[in-house]
Write a structure and sequence with these properties.
Number of strands: 10
CATH architecture of the largest domain: 6 Propeller
Number of helices: 2
Strand content: 25-35%
Distance between the termini: 119 Å
Helix content: 10-25%
Low-confidence stretches: none
Strand order of the largest sheet: 3-1-2-6
Largest sheet: 4 strands, antiparallel
């Protein structure tokens, strides 16, 4: 009986040796064994996924503008700049030779400068983006994209809830809020329909 038991153990050991040697000699066998053991462990120890997988929302970076009082200075040739505070003497602002003052607008850094084009489009630039008043400023044409032949006729800077009257040389007009004229693109927003030969007033 003892001899039979030893022979059985020897046979089992030889069988185990053969299986182990097959794993060493055959990568496919090793791969099947690993997969089988992982699946067994998953059934024994795994649980339902706790992490919710969902599409990530697109991140939007917003640059906050500090709300401050400023005065926007615009020249007759369309050079724009902003000076901190209100109550400035308009006579103190200097301009390039041959240029002069179009107007000053007391506003906030959160407001927008509106430029009214001869083509019926309105172009807007955030006041916070305007250069300081130490120099001559920059031409409005560097801040917006004007189509060929378009001239800037008028300007306005102020709060979004300000009501403005817009009219054409043909005698048509309407009122609109300044905030409705703001455009996110440099090419401006079409706001007044003009017939040939008409211009905004």
């Amino acid at each position: 009986l003892e001899t039979i038991k030893i022979q059985q153990e020897l046979a089992e050991l030889r069988k185990e040796k053969s299986a182990l040697q097959d794993l060493l000699d055959n990568p496919a066998s090793m791969k099947r064994l690993v997969i089988k053991e992982i699946e067994a462990d998953e059934k024994q120890f795994g649980d339902a996924r706790r992490t919710l997988i969902e599409a990530a929302e697109k991140a939007v970076v917003e640059q906050k503008v500090i709300d401050e009082a400023v005065t926007v200075v615009i020249s007759q040739k369309g050079w724009v700049r902003a000076r901190t505070g209100h109550g400035h003497d308009a006579g103190q602002f200097t301009f390039k030779a041959g240029d002069g003052l179009y107007g000053t607008f007391e506003c906030r850094t959160t407001d927008n400068l509106l430029a009214f084009g001869s083509n019926g489009r309105i172009y807007s630039v955030g006041v916070a983006l305007l250069p300081g008043a130490r120099g001559d400023g920059v031409p409005i044409t560097t801040l917006v994209d004007l189509s060929s032949g378009t001239r800037i006729l008028h300007y306005f800077v102020g709060a979004a809830d300000t009501t403005l009257l817009l009219a054409s040389s043909a005698g048509y007009g309407f009122t609109a809020k300044a905030g409705d004229m703001v455009s996110r693109v440099k090419g401006g927003k079409a706001f007044i329909t003009l017939d040939e030969g008409d211009e905004p007033l």
